[in-house]
Specification:
Elements (H helix, E strand, L loop, with lengths): L14 H12 L3 H11 L11 H13 L3 H13 L7 H13 L3 H13 L7 H13 L3 H12 L8 H13 L3 H13 L7 H14 L4 H14 L6 H20 L19
């Protein structure tokens, strides 16, 4: 995955350091322009007030100069109406500029706009390609989105094997939606054998990762529906789910992302 530029320790920005950045930005240094945008995009740090209008202006200058991370940041502000009016067409333009330079986050966001038809015509093939590129760089949400496109395919034979592979990759990196969808696949026997125990484990993990919104509500509902059949399993499954999440956080914090599947259920199929 294309690495983000080293961020400024905003708490340690001295007036002299800030003046030096401003001088480089005024001289046309795109990285300095981006840094000024970041400083104004961080709430109340180093005595610099949050100013999204100025942040957006600096990002735009750096983006026009070709700085990839500024192009992504500008696209994000345009999409979210930060520092000015929302502009999905502009967001799409700048996400694509950054995506072409290999920024996985921009590739994922561009895929989302193309899939939804925001900022221009819908383009399912283009969305899938950008999700694929971002997933190849390790972006878990892009992998989940691409898997969903496989599952939602209008073809008679969607690529279920590839969908499950992508979801397992994203789930391993603690994407809550991936765990929710894997729970659905195991519960219904889609793309593999039906297994209520594995479904419940994925739902338990999903409830830990999805904090709010309809996906969180549905994960909780599916979990409780399965536990209602065998309530004595609650402590066992919830403990395993928490242990899995804690272990993955520790592993990823150490930059050691292995590819082990989520912990299996204790051998009981409770889907019946």
């Amino acid at each position: 995955m294309t690495a983000s530029p080293r961020t400024i320790d905003a708490d340690a920005v001295s007036p002299e350091f800030l003046a030096a950045i401003e001088s480089r930005a005024a001289a046309g240094d795109p990285k300095a322009m981006f840094d000024l945008g970041r400083l104004h995009d961080i709430p109340e740090k180093a005595g610099i007030a949050l100013d999204l209008v100025r942040a957006r202006a600096w990002y735009e200058r750096a983006a026009e100069a070709g700085f990839a991370w500024a192009q992504f940041a500008l696209g994000n502000m345009l999409e979210k109406a930060q520092g000015g009016a929302r502009n999905d067409t502009g967001a799409r333009r700048w996400y694509e500029a950054a995506a072409q330079q290999g920024i996985a986050e921009a590739q994922m966001h561009l895929g989302s706009l193309l899939r939804a038809g925001r900022g221009g015509p819908a383009d399912a093939a283009g969305a899938a390609e950008w999700f694929r590129r971002a997933a190849a760089q390790g972006h878990e949400l892009a992998a989940t989105n691409l898997a969903l496109m496989h599952l939602e395919s209008a073809t008679d034979r969607p690529d279920l094997e590839e969908a499950r592979r992508l979801l397992e990759f994203a789930a391993d990196k603690l994407d809550g939606l991936a765990h929710l969808v894997l729970g659905d696949l195991h519960l219904r026997g889609i793309g593999g054998p039906r297994h209520g125990g594995l479904a419940l484990m994925h739902y338990c993990v999903a409830t830990l990762l999805l904090r709010a919104g309809p996906d969180a509500v549905r994960a909780g509902g599916e979990k409780e529906a399965l536990l209602a059949r065998q309530p004595a399993l609650r402590a066992e499954y919830e403990t395993q789910a928490r242990a899995f999440v804690d272990a993955r956080i520790a592993a990823m914090g150490g930059l050691a992302v292995d590819r082990r599947p989520p912990p299996g259920a204790p051998g009981k199929d409770i889907s019946q």
